Protein: UDP-glucose 4-epimerase
Organism: Profundicola chukchiensis
Amino acid sequence: MSKKILVTGGLGYIGSHTVVELQKEGFDVIIIDDLSNSEEFVLDRIEMITGKKPEFHKFDLKDQTKTNSFFQYNKVDGIIHFAASKAVGESTEKPLMYYRNNVVGLLNLIDAAKENEVDNLIFSSSCTVYGQADKLPIDESAPFKKAESPYGKTKQMGEEILEDYAKAFDKKVLALRYFNPIGAHKSTLIGELPKGVPNNLIPFVTQTAAGIRECLSVFGDDYPTRDGTAIRDYIYVVDLAQAHVKGLKRLLANENKVNYEIYNLGTGNGSTVLEVVDAFEKANNLQLNYKIVGRRPGDITAAYADNTKAETELGWTPETSLEEALRTAWEWQVSLDGSDHQK
Ligand code: WQD
């Protein structure tokens, strides 16, 4: 019988791509999502890609009663927990909302998982926990740096809570630290749906190319890097989604020796902002309107992954080039033409 997997936040950007990969691998998926930063039509889109409509429960994990009753009535073999708020800037303005959504939501989830004997969990973490690391590329042994934002702190807290939880109750938990996820499914049926003016680089780039934004502001060209702009590790969202499936299989097969494991999910290559602009132009045969402005507060100079651990232990290798990923990002943007999701 196929294994049943709960995906919280399964209608969001990374969640929806992961649901597709899970279904392709024969897992039965149940989604919990409160639609706070996602759309219900994504469910139909998933069905259009895989031919299977996942079961969907609309509620907020902060609702402890609903969370408990979900687990009483649904037996699941594992959980992938994406549901969280993720806007760094917003988290500074609304810190309590971030602690409530990201920490209380997580506590309710694992409380219920513990009570109902669900042993396997994968947690969405972020390279943001490293801050500006002392050594590049960054491997999993790099220490936490004081997080700049409440969002970053919630990811650090989430990891610490889960490490204690896994050890105390003999659970199996993977924390996956994402670098910068980009791109969209090649079907152009699912992708990122940023609300309002995007904060992240790639949606801003695609919206500028589409004429929705006038000009991309490149934040700072005075960083100590090869062209003065900041370096990040941009990882294709479907490659990232596949890492979750590999991680889950490892948990279900009981292959991990310890209760709590951390994996970096990045390509291992750093790109500067100007290199991304250039790759986007080449991949899509477009010219992008951009200007250099001052640094964005809180930004670090450079972050890219040492992904050796994920490669050797999960057998995961990212396969998609930056240009290819940027092509999917543009195709997705074009497919959104005229929709409400980008105003
Ligand atoms: C990338 C680079 C910007 C926009 C953040 C979170 C992290 C993660 C992903 C999520 C930087 C530059 C950006 C623009 C620009 N988490 N930039 N002009 O800051 O690396 O990471 O998002 O859930 O936790 O901190 O990503 O895409 O915002 O920026 O020049 O209009 O592009 O300065 O160097 P970041 P980003």
Remarks:
- The domain at 4-183+234-268 is CATH 3.40.50.720 (Rossmann fold).
